[in-house]
Every structure is written in C-alpha cells, then in structure tokens.
Amino acid sequence: MMTYSWKDRLRNFAGIQRAGAFAVTLIVIILFLPKESLFKYEYQVNQPWKHEKLLAPFDFGIQKSAEEIAIEKESIRSNQPLVFTLDSEISNNILSDIERTYIGSSVDTAGGCDSFLLVGLELCSRLLNQGLIERNSEAFQEIDPFDDILLYKNNQLVRLEHSKTISIQQFIDSLNQLSMVAADSVCSQRLTSVMLTNLRPNALYDDSLTQRLLFHELESIITIEGKVSKGTTIIDKGDIVTSAAYKTLESLRAQYQERTISDTGFQWAIIGQIGAISILLGLLVLFVYMNQNRLYNDPRPMTLTLSLLSVSFAISLIAISSSAISIYAIPIGITPLLLRMFYDFRVSIFTFVITILIVGIFTSNPLEYIVIQLSAISFATLYQAASTKRSRMLGTALLVFIGYSIIYTCISVAQDGTLTGVDTTLFGWFAINALLCTLVFPLIYIVEKMFGYISETTLLELSDSNQPLLKELAIKAPGTFQHSLQVANLCEKIANKIGGNTVLLRTAAMYHDVGKMNEPKFFIENQLPNNNPHDDLEPEESAMIIVNHVHQGVEMCRNQRIPIAIIQFIQTHHGKSQVRFFLKKAQQKAELAGRKVDINQFSYPGPLPKTKEHAILMMADTIEAASRSLKKYDNPTLDALVDRLVDSQREDGQFDEAQITLKDISDAKAELKLALHSIYHQRISYD
Length: 687
Prior knowledge:
Layout: H1 6-11, H2 13-31, E1 54-55, E2 60-63, H3 66-79, E3 82-86, H4 88-105, H5 114-130, H6 138-141, E4 148-153, E5 156-161, H7 168-181, H8 185-198, E6 203-205, H9 207-219, E7 224-228, E8 233-235, H10 243-264, H11 266-291, H12 293-296, H13 299-321, H14 334-340, H15 345-360, H16 366-385, H17 392-416, H18 425-437, H19 440-451, H20 456-462, H21 468-476, H22 478-498, H23 502-511, H24 539-559, H25 564-572, H26 580-593, H27 612-627, H28 635-651, H29 662-679
Parallel strand pairs: 3-4
Antiparallel strand pairs: 1-8, 2-7, 3-6, 4-5
Helix pairs in contact: 2-13, 4-5, 4-8, 5-7, 7-8, 10-11, 11-15, 13-15, 14-15, 15-16, 16-17, 17-18, 21-22, 22-23, 22-27, 22-29, 23-25, 23-27, 24-25, 24-26, 27-28, 28-29
C-alpha cells in the first residue's frame, strides 16, 4: 500500500485551498439564502404573460399591496387619539394641599371662611374629576384643537374633543364666578390665590397605553381584499399583466411559498437552491480550468474570484430583503472591474456572469436584472480594459451610470410603451452604484497585499524610470539601462504576437539586470573600448561576478519591496544556463593543465522559466545582448543568430517548465528577426 509523507500532502495544498474556497463560498451563500422558496413564474406589469394559462391551484385570498397597507397604517397613526390617564392620587393631593395652604394662610380665628372653603373644595373636586389635561407635554402640542383625545378613568376610556377639555384658566374662571356670589370677597381672593398655587394637571399623557392602542389598531388591519377559488383562471397566455392581475399573482406567490413550506418541507427548497448554485459555481471552476490553466494551478485566482462572488451575493441579498435599498445601488460591478486589474477580460466577465446569474435567481425580475447588469458593467469593463491609468476609473464610473440609465430606460419604455413608466428614483441609485465602483482602486492595494498579486496599474508605476532603482541603474550602469529598454521593447513585440502580459513583461525587463549596477564595468554594455577588466581575472572569478548579478538583483529588489512577480523574472531570465564564454576559456586552460572544470561554477542557479512571460524575457535578453557583439548586421546573419540561440535554449531544456509551445517559440523567433532587422537596418551615408 502506497503511503504519503507530509511533503507529498503539502504539494497538494493548491487543490485543498481551492476546495476550501469553494466550500466557504457555498456556506456564505447558504447563510444568506432567502427564507422563502422560489416562484416558477416570471412576470411584470404591463407585459404579456409568457406562460401557459394559469389556473388557481387552491383557494387563496388577494392581498393588499404593500403600498396600500402602508397608506392605511399611516392613516391609523395620524388619527390615533392620545391617551391621558386620570390619576386619583394626584387629585387627592391637590385637594389636601389646597385645604392645608388655605387654613395655614387664614388669620380669621372665628372660621368665617370655612364654609367658603368647603364650597371651593367641592367645586375643585368636581372639576378635577373631569380631568385637568397635561398640556405642556410634547405629544399634546402636536394635536389639533379639533382632534379627539382619550381620557382613561375608572378603568374606562372616554373620548373627548381637545377644544372642550378643561384648562387651568377655565378652572380659575369658574372659581371667579363663585367669588362674585360670595359674601366675603376676602375669603374668595384668598382661595383664588391658594388655587393658583396648588393646581396642577391630574390627567397625564400615557404613552404606553397610547402605543398599545395603536398596535392593536395596526394589527387589526385586514390585508385581504378578495378571494380566488381553486380552478379559477388567473391569466391566460398572451394576456397583459394589469395592476389587478399583478396583485393576484403576487398573492398567489406568497400563498404558494407558504404551501410549499408546509406541504413539502422547507429543506427541499434549500436543497434545490443549493443545487442550482453549486452547478453555477462548478461552471466557474471548469471555465478557469479549461481556459486559464495557469491560473487554475495557482489557488489564489480561484480564492479571489470566489471571495468576490460570495461578498457580492451576500450584499445583494441584503438589499433584496430590504425595502430601504435598491438592488441597483449595490456595486456588483466591482467584481469584474477588480478582477480585470489582475486577469484578462474573459476571467473577469465570466465571473461576473456567474455572479449575476446566482443573484438573479432571487430577484423579482431576473431577466431585467441580468440584462441591465450585464450590459452596463460589460461596457464599463471593456472601457477599463483599454487602459490601466487610475484617471480612467472616473470615466469608468461615469460609463457605469450612463450604461445603467440608458439600458434601464430602454427596457422600461419597451415594457410600458411610454416614458411615464420610468422610475426616476432609480437614477439616484445608479449614481450611488457608479460612485461606489471607484472603490476599485483602494481595493487593488488590499488585494495585492492579501494575495500577493501585482496589478497592471502598479506595474505601470514601477516601470517609471524615476523609480529609485531604475534611476540608480541609469546613473551607475547607463549601458545596462539602455539594454533593458531594448529588451522591454522586444518583449512587448513578442507578447503581442504570441500572447502574454505585456505590462508585466515590460516592467520585468526594466528590472531584470539591476544587479549589474554594483559592478557595471564587468558587463560589456558598460565597458569602454579596449578596457575589459576581465582580462586581469581568472575565468572562475569572472564567471562568479557575472552569475552574481542575479543574486544581487534579487536582494536589491527585496530591499526596495519590489513585488515577488518581478523578482521571479530576475531569478529565471538566465534559467540554468552557463556563462559559455568564460566556461570555454576555463576549459581551454584546464585542458592544458590536465584538470577538469567544475561546470557548476559557470552555471546560473535558476530556476528555469515557469511561465510564457519568463521564457519571452529569456529569449529577448539573450538575443539583444548577443546582437551587440556581431561584426556583421545583415539579415541572414541576424536570422542565424536568433535561430542558433533560441534553438540552443530549447535544446538545453530552458523552456521545459514554461507554458510555451513550439509554435509560440517559432513565432517568437520570427518576431525577434523582424525587430532586429528594423534596429540594424542599413542606413544611408551622410558624408
């Protein structure tokens, strides 16, 4: 039985990571799945019914629309009377305070005013029993004079008109009328003063009881306005879905979902949804496997695409379940725009297609949603793909808004036949969506740090000759800098012919020889005529200096935090080839001395090129450097040079691990020949 070591298992980490990303994505989607089952019919107002005749499968009630219920609730809220509770304890305290204050302020020891006090207390008790409303409360200030209020006393609610409730001023007026018939004006004045001091509201606003009554009224709203019997024709094929028919269909949808859950069990709906989503996710994985094998072998692309898909789905489902946010405000276009910064157009668009298909399953109008999203965002992604400048993102955001607006307007006019059906509020959501799409650039930095990627925008910044390393290279090793520029041009020409990331290649070509700046005079492109320092060195020493420029270039780039993708080009641009000139020189000397040469001293450490881009740089670098040493620059000589060097690299196995075909190599040689012909073409004499 075959056993596997921990090293063997570690080699399969990419497969484990891809499987983990797939599982996590599926779990996230399951967590955000809606709680109701899907309805198998799609329909829109003022559009023909595209299905067969629909008969009511069971009795169901026609539900009021959400707008109708909302209007009814608002009417109940605006007409709900405020409740004031009569507090008998406050009433008793008021009477006690009046009596105590009145007696304490009296200087009539004969008690001549006692009878007047009793009459006043009786009047006060009678008026307090009617309720002295708390008028300084915020709730009371908001009601109109002709609105009703409810007074809760003796465990009963009494409806009163606001304008007819008793105020403190009315209380005092009643007391003054009593004073006019009183025999002793001194007693009446004293009682009036005491009343003003001690009177206070005894009917206080009761928010709890008011809210309970409001809740009861809201709960008592009847949401059904009609009934459809089983077997009744709801709509026939070709009929226009009117507002009334739409309301009936929406009622059937709600009842259908409830019946599905109660009759078949909710778990079957979940299983069906998961099955459909799993198939769509599987298509995405299969597409990457069949069309982007290099990306598939790297677990990061699959992890990134599935992560963006799951986040887009989760946020979109939150918007679908919310009445406050439109689904078109969700910047789902960030997914293809961000992926386009790292991969080609096919990967970004196919990922987006799968994303909107999964989200579209749960939208109310899937076809409209998919058409609008796919059209608007595809145009924006194509536009962004044409340039990698950051300033172009503003144009992309504008194109997102214009795309959404035009496509939505066209679809709306096609549905309604007029512009009156266009929902202008959606244009605001489109604008929010477009603005949020500009978050792509901040997200680029996060993705680069989390996944170790390097975007085309970052590559363009790195290829600027004002970058510290490149500026230092131009000063210390101007010949090498010019060589790098020529290699970059050759790489770009080859990549345009056989395919490849031209921006990555151009940037890598600018950095591939930065290690030479430590000892620039030992490299031929920086040497003056008849001044070769290798003449004073042994072949082994010369080879060590030449080979060491790879190590030094790697260290320089690491110190400057150059991305690993560029460093890999430095490591592989010579592969495991030999420094043939000094190897041959050492072999000649060794043969005369009767000893053997250690070939490892004259070999680059590698590794071999891993990608097509690595192989392109190796070919371009070798050909450009070798072409400088030719004594004759006619076309046959240049062609022979290209054939000899590239075929030698292939025969040595330098391209064995790179994803490059024999046809690619043949096309690359043809492009190199054309480039050399144009560089070294015959010029006229100016003598």
